[in-house]
Amino acid sequence: FSLSCGFLDIDLTDLRKGGANITGFQLVNYTEQNVSRTIQQWMEFENKDAKIPKRRLKYTGALTYDGVKVMSTAFQNLRKQRIDISRRGNAGECLANPPAPWGQGIDIQRALQQVRIDGLTGHIQFNEKGRRTNFTVSVMELAPSGPKKVGYWNEDEKYVSTATFMRGSNDSSYGLQNRTYIVTTILESPYVMLKKNHDQLTGNDKYEGYIVELAAEIAKHVGYHYKLKVVSDGKYGARDPETKMWNGMVGELVYGKADVAVAPLTITLVREEVIDFSKPFMSLGISIMIKKPTKSKPGVFSFLDPLAYEIWMCIVFAYIGVSVVLFLVSRFSPYEWHAEDYEEGANPQTPTQPTGPSAGLQSGQSPGQQGQNQQNQEQTNEFGIFNSLWFSLGAFMQQGCDISPRSLSGRIVGGVWWFFTLIIISSYTANLAAFLTVERMVSPIESAEDLAKQTEIAYGTLDAGSTKEFFRRSKIAVFEKMWSYMKSADPSVFVKTTDEGVMRVRKSKGKYAYLLESTMNEYIEQRKPCDTMKVGGNLDSKGYGIATPKGSPLRNPVNLAVLKLNEQGLLDKLKNKWWYDKGECGSGGGDSKDKTSALSLSNVAGVFYILIGGLGLAMLVALVEFCYKSRTESQRMKVSTARAAASAAQTFQCSALDTGGATAPYTELQSYGLYSNNTVKI
């Protein structure tokens, strides 16, 4: 490294082929128009002493030239201000003790501090202490073809790399094998992690993870040696709006502290302006992480969930409608009516007496009585309203019934009802297993819109990261609303590290949502205690890239290595290895199991409740029927007994008063039946 500010003034011809890395500063920019014009005048100046050879103006001569120009400009400004700085009379003793200050010295100092000119060494101005400020120094590096400008340095931006290398040039591959490159990265699971025994290891062996293996594969394909270095401030890289300084891994690349950044570094426009990115090695987007809600317990009537409540209501109305239609068509159709024989006044439960002429003669009935019995034959219909309801219910429950329609119209009604119940029952059975065996989780947040329109659940991003920058620059109404909330939230919703954000989600009891890259969200969802989850889709689409300083010779080789690894499928293989093969929560995340969980009592509790309720209702109805029947029979027995007693009393009175009031011999006795008014002579 050369500390001289005239790198181009040094003869480095003998060092070009040695492979040494030489870097230095160059104060004079010979490509500037005013510099080249002044040098031309210098070379054309006719020196009286011909023995003095004409040489190129070095940086020391340029500084002398600028110093004289500064003094000249300062005195010209004093003359314009009509300030008298001439000495008159005794100039004073130079060796006076104590020294006597020059009275006009303060004016000259003030005039020098006010100078603002562009000299051969760049912009010239001074601060209050007389030090030069706001100047730029070029950073040069020796290449096989000669000195190359690789960047510049100033007080505001510090070192900025601006090296440009032509594709196919020998300079682009110069020194790749002759130096060890610094690869900056960040500790972030599963990208870069310290091994359990890292205290006993040194160098790159201390780390493991996706990025560690990716960096090794890229170095193998490019052919260079490297050393992993964790970024000191633990940040990815953002530009401070006040100081204009870059921090994190981007800052280390911009200011020359690292040669490559292999990390989950998002490719963005503002970063692309100061560093170069390779092709994305991983695609992702911003996602929402929330605490996994507790699984909702199945309701008592969860067996009704396979069908919507609207469908259940339609089934009830269809059941009633079919029953009514069946009742009506049975009434209207003459083929649904049939005759039923029984004697008038006879008990329907007693055996039916034989009919016909011979039967009438055998029973002692006259032909007139036989005609009267034929008139007593009634036309009956089995499908009353209650039987219609019972038939429809039996068909819906896939059960039989002791009655069935006789008419064609009734059978059409029954047929379409059977087809309807077949489809409904089949659809219900198909969905029942899924609803009873899967416990569903009710998430309060499903998308970014849900977050934006509520204030109960706080949400934030990583500070000094691309996610925060995305919301700050977004012009979409939803994201603008979210950014307005995040930047004004108190306490702050931004976190310093991803681990801090995840821990805040877990401890907030569902009151904090963390916005981060989807890849990290998916990884954390696979880690114990398996209490976080990703909700909704990605808010944007972006990628992770490998970063290098502007114009770095590593850019093209690294880019080709990434494309080759992608075509070989190694990138997907690495992701599966560190995300899912090493997952701790199963393939589905959370508390998922490999086998279907068995039904619990809570899944079918409603069926048991309906069974118990139905049995209780049946007992209650039976009790009501018994009480009602007992009361009816009791009242009828009282009426029949009273009538029998009155009739018997009247018969005995008539017999006693026969033959002139004398008591007649008892000739016959009438016996009255308990349930009938007919008498039988004995």
From TrEMBL:
Q: Give a GO cellular-component term.
A: postsynaptic membrane
Q: Read off the SMART domains from this record.
A: Lig_chan-Glu_bd (SM00918), PBPe (SM00079)
Residue ranges crossing the lipid bilayer per the database entry: 307-329, 416-438, 606-628
Low complexity: bias regions: 356-378
Q: Residue ranges of the Ionotropic glutamate receptor C-terminal domain?
A: 180-581
* InterPro entries attached to this UniProt entry: ANF_lig-bd_rcpt, Glu/Gly-bd, Ionotropic_Glu_rcpt, Iontro_rcpt_C, Peripla_BP_I
Which catalysed reactions does the entry list for this protein? Ca(2+)(in) = Ca(2+)(out)
Q: Name one Pfam family in it.
A: Lig_chan-Glu_bd
PANTHER family listed in its UniProt record: IONOTROPIC GLUTAMATE RECEPTOR (PTHR18966)
Q: What is this protein called?
A: Glutamate receptor, ionotropic, AMPA 1a
- Which organism's genome codes for this protein? Hucho hucho (huchen)
Its lineage reads: Eukaryota, Metazoa, Chordata, Craniata, Vertebrata
